[in-house]
Write a structure and sequence with these properties.
Elements lengths: L3 H11 L3 E5 L3 H14 L3 E5 L1 H7 L1 H12 L6 E8 L2 H9 L4 E4 L6 H17 L3 E6 L20 H11 L3 E4 L16 H10 L4 E3 L7 H9 L2 E6 L1 H17 L6 H23 L10
Parallel strand pairs: 1-2, 1-8, 2-3, 3-4, 4-5, 5-6, 6-7, 7-8
Helix pairs in contact: 2-4, 2-11, 3-4, 5-6, 6-7, 7-8, 10-11
Bound molecules: 1,3-dihydroxyacetonephosphate.
Length: about 280
């Protein structure tokens, strides 16, 4: 059994990142997990607030934990972007070993107190907590932010980590959720400043659309977890549409889904290679 505290620290030390893939249901979840097994990769599976709302925390946890048991690589189940303390606590009670308390829209003081309250509970359960600071741009499931002032301040990062006791920190450095409008412009200078003064692993949200060379550069610069969502669900939906168009009327689910799953697996494998976490599961097995 993998210790959640170590997985991002090990990645940080060894110069790779753990990708956290958002799943929407059992089909893409299986595709993600099978890809990790075939690549002997260390990954996280992440349930976002809409998926948790649709199925309930208990079902998301049961789905994630039982699928993870079907493979030999370690898979860490993560709750992505909980916006209140109760949602994190509920996830922890249902067995999530990694949760994100996203209080980035509040002032620093409130952000610290919300994260700290989750950390106090999580650490008793050997679970870990991701906090967020600066703003991740974009509109949608993970929150809405289109303002100009999105960069995380290094001083605020230091204070949030020190006062809350969080295990990892998601930082806004120009990244955005969803498909980027134009070329993503990550601020590597700001990443360096933050990495120089913060000693917890750093997290990059909004993976979809960031070129592979920029992801690798960010990993070299201190990013240890990369969140990937949009490209998973868009591949799922687009391939599903293609399969439905290709098949005769009234197809059976089990005829439609296998080729769709293969396409999702291919995308997941590409990301595993970009994050350089292929082969990294062996040390935990
Ligand atoms: P993308 O959907 O842009 O890949 O980002 C996912 C994410 O950051 C989830 O928290």
């Amino acid at each position: 059994m993998i210790a959640p505290t170590n997985i991002l620290r090990d990645a940080d030390k060894e110069g790779y990142a753990v990708p956290a893939f958002n799943f929407s249901d059992i089909w893409d979840l299986q595709a993600i997990i099978e890809a990790a097994e075939e690549e002997s990769a260390v990954i996280m599976i992440a349930a976002n607030p809409l998926v948790i709302k649709a199925f309930g925390t208990e079902t998301c946890s049961a789905m994630g934990l039982s699928c993870a048991k079907m493979v030999t690589v370690p898979i860490l189940l993560h709750q992505d972007h909980a916006f209140n303390v109760d949602a994190c606590n509920e996830a922890l009670e249902y067995g999530f070993k990694s949760v994100m308390m996203d209080a980035s829209k509040y002032e620093l003081e409130k952000n610290i107190s919300m994260v700290k309250s989750v950390v106090d509970k999580a650490h008793k359960l050997d679970a870990v907590v991701e906090a967020e600071i600066g703003r991740i741009r974009g509109t949608g499931i993970e929150g809405d932010f289109e303002g100009g002032d999105f960069l995380a301040s290094p001083d605020d990062c230091v204070e949030l980590v020190r006062e809350s006791g969080c295990d990892s920190l998601a930082i806004g450095i120009g990244n955005a959720h969803g498909f980027y409008q134009g070329k993503p412009e990550l601020n590597f200078e700001r990443l360096k400043k933050i990495n120089d003064c913060v000693d917890v692993p750093l997290v990059l949200h909004g993976g979809t659309g960031i070129p592979a060379e920029d992801i690798k550069k960010a990993i070299l610069g201190g990013i240890s977890k990369v969140n990937v969502g949009t490209i998973i669900h868009s591949t799922y939906m687009n391939e599903l549409r293609k399969e439905l168009n290709r098949l005769p009327e009234n197809p059976y689910t089990l005829d439609v889904m296998p080729p769709v799953k293969e396409k999702i697996k291919a995308v997941v494998k590409d990301w595993i290679h970009v994050c350089m976490c292929n082969g990294k599961a062996k040390r935990y097995m």
